[in-house]
């Protein structure tokens, strides 16, 4: 049987692009379909515009800091329209660079929404296309709770990058990655922010130290943080959008804008998966360790599967798929060493287990020497920069260590440049670094990262 393509990729986000390029490098005849813009969520509505906005929101704090260093100048003013337009230009530049790089690799780009008609055939813009292997990399989309009246008045993060103007006040529903990042950034722009999280803490799943420290710092900065609280109803009124809260903070808050950030779900609508029998787990595509679905020639990577919703994970899964299928080189994704960062102020970066997860996995019981299996080392210090900036902005670091073999099970940082500091440690973490190896390492002085080598 001959097909139009060796590989057809649905979705040109990080997962699809990485797979297409790697397969083409191995000589495969590849096409990629994109219903919207090349680059997917990450480039167009996620990591890239978010981080640019985070940088933009930092300037008032930096302006306040430079006075401590002797600089004098009146506070800068933001022209929101200029920021939105500069950010759009940069994103367009990235999209164009993807077009050039796909063309250079001989990958055909098809603009439009792909739909399965059988396990080897897709339809795109009414044109049937056949492929030997098909990779689903359609990503995810923001979900909204179905049970809140007036939820249609809430926007999702997709709208936040092209707002006509900044709101004066904002209610954020959900205190996960997106909720915390947007609360922090919008507050930096001068917006009054109310963050509503139904769980007892924000950033559930991170180490408890991160959850409590970040919440305390957000509150100190003036962000109203309501945990153990849910939204009962939303209503558009003359004064703005009124949000009825229930739980620990039963009250009504009125704001100009409501952002719903309660999670993202796979973007499978209209893909025709039911026709070809690809197995789903809830709303996600079920895959094995090789990213193969229940239909043998169809694979899936990234946010449409039930793994981690992060760009580097989608990319790694895409690459690993192409290595295995077109390079005959099996390489498994190491999900235990995936780091992540929350671009809030303070910034968070973390890899491995939280203290609670480590205790659950390895037990809290005493070993023969009578000590606990899990030891946590923690340090809080004022980075040199902030001694003159006059900001109260301590950095907090934590190592979670298995007392039995001295192995470091988790590394957690809260503070300036946390993601950049953690990056190098991730490599050591993957290699099974021990606490003693941390202790024996000489740091760079003066820096914040050196504190990891003197932590006890
Ligand atoms: C606000 C926000 C901030 C984020 N920040 C970070 C961050 O800082 N770091 C990080 O690691 N992750 C971040 N993420 C998550 C990251 O964006 C995703 O994990 C990543 O983009 C997933 O890649 P993907 O390839 O699986 O899917 P996507 O990037 O979602 O790409 C899927 C593509 O498929 C296309 N598509 C869908 N259906 C079809 C179809 N039927 N036919 C053709 N094309 C189709 C879509 O248009 C889309 O372009 C963020 C997400 C959001 C929303
Ligand atoms: N920096 C990054 O790497 C980054 C940034 C943004 C997004 N992402 C990815 O995107 C995914 C989605 O992000 P997200 O923040 O939307 O989801 P999330 O799963 O991180 O957080 C959602 C939060 O909303 C809360 N919640 C759910 N329903 C609620 C309700 N009715 N009322 C109040 N709170 C409610 C949950 O308890 C949770 O804390 C993340 O899991 C992450 O993988 C990553």
Automatic annotation (TrEMBL):
Listed Pfam families: Pyr_redox_2, Pyr_redox_dim
Membrane-crossing segments per the record: none
Entry's Gene Ontology molecular function annotations: flavin adenine dinucleotide binding; glutathione-disulfide reductase (NADPH) activity
Residues that, per the record, bind FAD: 51, 303
EC number: 1.8.1.7
Gene3D superfamilies, alphabetized: 3.30.390.30, FAD/NAD(P)-binding domain (3.50.50.60)
Annotated positions binding NAD(+): 174-181, 197, 263
Keywords from the UniProt entry: Disulfide bond, FAD, Flavoprotein, NAD, Nucleotide-binding, Oxidoreductase, Redox-active center
Gene Ontology CC, one term: cytosol
One GO term of the biological process aspect: glutathione metabolic process
PROSITE patterns assigned: PYRIDINE_REDOX_1 (PS00076)
Bound cofactor: record note: Binds 1 FAD per subunit.
Required cofactor(s): FAD
Active site feature: 445
Protein name: Glutathione-disulfide reductase
Lineage, broadest ranks: Bacteria, Bacillati, Cyanobacteriota, Cyanophyceae, Leptolyngbyales
